[in-house]
Amino acid sequence: MFPTDRPRRLRTDGVRPLVSETDLSASDLIAPVFVDATTDERVAIESMPGHERVPVREAVDRVEEVLATGVEAVMVFGIPESKDAVGSRAYAADGVVQRTVRDIVAETDAYVITDVCLCEYTAHGHCGVLEDHAEADPRLTVRNDETLDLLSETAVSHAQAGADMVAPSSMTDGMVGAIREGLDDAGFSEMPIMSYAVKYESAFYGPFRDAADGAPAFGDRRHYQMDPANRREALREARLDVEEGADVLMVKPGLPYLDIVRDVREDFDVPVAAYNVSGEYAMLHAAADRGWLDLEETAHESLLSMKRAGADLILTYFAEDIAGSL
Ligand code: PBG
C-alpha cells in the first residue's frame, strides 16, 4: 500500500496536542514597558499600537496591567527628563528607571529586568560616550572603554533600586565583564545578567526609537551593532559574553534571525532569549489593520517559531495580548 508512511495520521484534533513538540506559555514571556519622566499623562506610541509611554507615577499601574494577563516579567525602558553628552540620567540614583524600579519592587510581584544602555539618555542618541568630531566624521563614534564605566555604574544603580536582572544592550566590547565586576564589587554577585549578546544593526528597531526617543541624531549604529550578513560572528559575540559572565544570551531581532537563535542554542548551555522587536510587532499590526493577516494567529506563530528555534524566553510587545490565549 502506497504511501506506507502517513504523517497525517497524527494531525487529527485529538492527537495533535499530544504530539506537539513546542509549547508557548505566559511564563516564557517578558513585556517591555516604557516609563517617561517628561510626561504626566500616558502617551500612545503611534507606531506600536496598544503601547504607551507612562509617567513614573503610573508605572505600578502599568505593571499591574501586565501581571493581570499572566505575564510575570517586565523589561523597563526609561525616557529621562533631560539628556546630555554622557547620559548622566542613566546612572542617577533618582533617574527615571531607578525611581520606577523602586516603586514596582515595593508594590508588585513582577520580575523586574532593566535595559542598560545610554542611547535614550545621550543628547546625540548613541549608545555611549562619543569620540571628538564624531559628528563631522561618521567613522568615529562611541568610545568603547570610557563607555564601560558608565554602563557598569548604570547597572549598579539599577541593582540598588531593586531590579532583579540587568540586560545590557549597547554592544560595547567588554560590557558584560565590566558590569559583572561592578555588580560584584557593589555586593550584587547574585544578580543575573541577560546580555543582548547578538544584536544586529537592524532596520526593524524603527518604532522603538520613536517609543524611547533613542534614535541617533547623526550617523548610525553600524560601528557597534552587528552586520546582518554575519553568522560566525554571532557565535563569537556569544562566546565572549559567556566568558565575561552572561547568565542569559539574547539574540535580537527575533523572527528574521531564527537561524542565529538555533546556532546559539546549539553551541551554549545558558538560556537563550529572543527579542521580538518593535518592527516585527508594527509589521503584523499594519497588515492586520488592512485585513491582510490575522493578528493573533500570526503573533502566536511568530513566538512559537522562536521557541521552536531554541529560545527559552521571549521579549515581546505581544506578551499581554497573547498571554490570555495560551
Ligand atoms: C537600546 C535598545 C534598542 C532596542 C532595545 N534596546 C534600540 C536600538 O538598539 O537601536 C530596540 C528594541 C525594539 O526595536 O523593539 N539600545
UniProtKB/TrEMBL annotation:
GO terms for molecular function: porphobilinogen synthase activity; zinc ion binding. Zn(2+) binds at residues 117, 119, 127. Mg(2+) binds at residue 237. Pathway: Porphyrin-containing compound metabolism; protoporphyrin-IX biosynthesis; coproporphyrinogen-III from 5-aminolevulinate: step 1/4. PROSITE patterns: D_ALA_DEHYDRATASE. CDD domains: ALAD_PBGS (cd00384). The keyword Lyase applies. It comes from the Archaea. One of its GO terms (cellular component) is cytosol. 5-aminolevulinate 2 binds at residues 278, 317. Its EC number is 4.2.1.24. InterPro entries: ALAD (IPR001731), ALAD_AS (IPR030656), Aldolase_TIM (IPR013785). It holds the Pfam family ALAD. Keywords: Heme biosynthesis, Lyase, Magnesium, Metal-binding, Porphyrin biosynthesis, Zinc. The active site is at residues 199, 252. 5-aminolevulinate 1 binds at residues 209, 221. SUPFAM superfamilies: Aldolase. PANTHER family: DELTA-AMINOLEVULINIC ACID DEHYDRATASE. Belongs to the ALAD family. Homooctamer. This is Delta-aminolevulinic acid dehydratase.
